[in-house]
Amino acid sequence: MDGSLLATNGNPYAYDAASNGYGPMRRADPRFLRQIAKAVGGAASVLTVGAGTGGYEPPDRRVIAVELGDTIIAQRDISAAPVVKGAVEALPFRDNSFAASMAVLTMEHSADPMAGLRELARVATRRAIVLTLDPARINDFWLYRYIPDAAFLQSARYPSIEDIRAALGGETRVVTVPIPHDCQDNIVAAHWRRPSAYLERRVRSRISVLSELGDDHILDDLRRLSEDLRSGAWDAAHGWMTTQNEMDLGYRLVVAEYTPA
């Protein structure tokens, strides 16, 4: 890859333009939601940025969502939290406006993720929560070895865990978030035990990094995966995974705790 895809101005994934099918396959996985709700704890007010259609907004809290894309805003359910159109790099709220702030698998869509992380810290009085992918663990997932350009983009766009901790400040802890074999959210790692799913156009079109690369760009990669599935080569290398109920594929929940002034 020549890096040209990284040069896109504004939203790196042109996220809104590619999100017409976001809703049907990007629904919250209840196991992720439980971990996020536990991290939010007793915070009464929560700001969630890059909120998507609202699946990970914690229940029984006063929640305000921030979303950049008009298409996704239009897909939000009437029962979802109120949404403000805006960018995470410049949140339209005063300092210490919320007890907690959170960003769930959205930092890679930011034009300046480090600025966005600092904004999360600025508006929160008690804690900031980020569900992310550790770029140092990208190669733990077999799909990236078949589609190396996807690995390149993910590695370049996700901040390191240490950079996230530094940007958030406070006292941080990092929690491993394993991916269940029947993950209900169509994130890129959702089908780690179902490799043939990545050969389905409808699945790829709802995974932002694969959609951005486009089928023409990854055609040879997909052909190699298809051939390995037919020949048994994939099963010989990765078949042991089919007996596992969950896998650590580098997803992490970073929680920063703040001491109120």
What's this, in brief?
With 261 residues, the protein is an alpha/beta fold. Helix content is 32%, strand content 18%.
Attribute tags:
32% helix, 261 residues, two-stranded antiparallel ribbon, 11 helices
Uncertain spans, ≥5 residues at pLDDT below 50? 6-21
Note the main sheet.
7 strands, mixed
Side-by-side strand order of the widest sheet: 3-2-1-4-5-9-6
State the separation between the terminal residues, measured CA to CA. 47 Å
Average pLDDT works out at 89
Helix content: 25-40%
Strand content: 15-25%
By DSSP (H or I, 4+ residues per run), the number of helices equals: 11
Shape: elongated
Structural class: alpha/beta
Please tell me about this protein's structure.
The structure is a single chain. The protein has 261 residues and is of the alpha/beta class. Helices cover 32% and strands 18% of the residues. It has eleven helices and nine strands. It has helices at 22-25, 30-40, 70-75, 113-123, 143-146, 148-157, 161-168, 201-204, 208-213, 219-231, 233-238; strands at 45-49, 62-67, 83-85, 98-104, 124-133, 171-176, 179-180, 246-247, 251-257. It has a seven-stranded mixed β-sheet, sandwiched between helices. A two-stranded antiparallel sheet has the order 7-8. The longest helix is centred in the C-terminal third of the chain and has 13 residues, at 219-231. It starts with 21 loop residues before the first helix and ends with a strand. The model is unreliable at 6-21 (pLDDT under 50).
